[in-house]
Amino acid sequence: MVRKAMLFFLVLVSVQIKGLAQAPTQAVAVPHNLKGFVPKGYSVLNVTRGDLNRDAYPDAILVLFKAGEERRSTESERPEKRPLLILAGKPNKSYRLVARSDNAVYCVNCGGQMGDPFTGISIRNGCFSVEHYGGSGWRWTRIITFKYAPAEKNWYLFKDGGESFHATSPEQVKTKVRTAKDFGKITFGKFNIYKED
Predict the structure, then answer these.
(1) For residues 136-169, b (16+ Cβ closer than 10 Å) or e, as one string?
(2) Residue 197 lies in a domain
(3) What are phi and psi of 149, to 5 degrees?
(4) Of all residues in the chain, what percent carry a pLDDT higher than 90?
(5) Residue 8, pLDDT score
(6) Residue 88: which domain range?
(7) Which of 34, 118, 181, 184 is 20 to 30 A from 160 (CA-CA)?
(8) How far apart are CA 106 and CA 68, in angstroms?
(9) For this UniProt entry, which residues form the secretion signal (predicted)?
(10) 95 in a structural domain
(11) What torsion, rounded to 10 degrees, do the Cα atoms 109, 107, 31, 155 define?
């Protein structure tokens, strides 16, 4: 009886989570001095500010999405890409676009039954991380960190890793982290989250 109740509960949660995966993505408010960087047809999913290039001016990262991305990503084999823009701060409190990648953030449906896997961006001391969480019975995280190289004035893949565990055994966590020793020197612009190992 307990087993049937547990199975019913897991199925119910799975159905509820699957329903969430189809919810339209919600845009966030964009500061006035960043609106000009949002291309026509896109909205902003996330704005994060911090020190990206180790200078005296605050920088910003925008993660963008297209309206209806949840529908288009399921109707075709190719996911609707989510651009990530790196904006360097200038002395007059304006910004300039210094880098863009359409392959650094997973698509809205790439998280499986858990729904949208994107959980946020964190910035610290010239590094930024793109954070994801997804799965169904098996859950996973993926955190991709890029580090600024002042000599090249570019960001390079620093770490790519995460954890996995089964929902019924969350204490049994497997961790896998790769560094530049494993994958070599990869620029932010060349990194592709969709490319298999």
Answers:
(1) eeebbbbbbbbbbeeeeebbbbbbbebeebeeee
(2) no
(3) -110, 105
(4) 73
(5) 35
(6) 2-183
(7) 34
(8) 15
(9) 1-23
(10) yes
(11) 150
User: Residue 89's CB: how many other CB atoms inside 10 A?
Assistant: 21
Q: Classify residue 188: in a domain, yes or no.
A: no
Residue type (1 letter), 103: N
* Token duo for residue 27: 């845009």
**Rg over CA atoms, the chain:** 18
| Number of structural domains in the chain | 1
SS (H, E, C) 3-56: HHHHHHHHHHHHHHHHHHHCCCCCCCCCCHHHHHHCCCCEEEEEEEEECCCCCC
Please report, as a single letter, which amino acid is at residue 7: L
Q: Give the tens place of pLDDT for each residue, 62-108.
A: 999 998 898 766 655 678 999 999 999 999 999 999 999 999 999 99
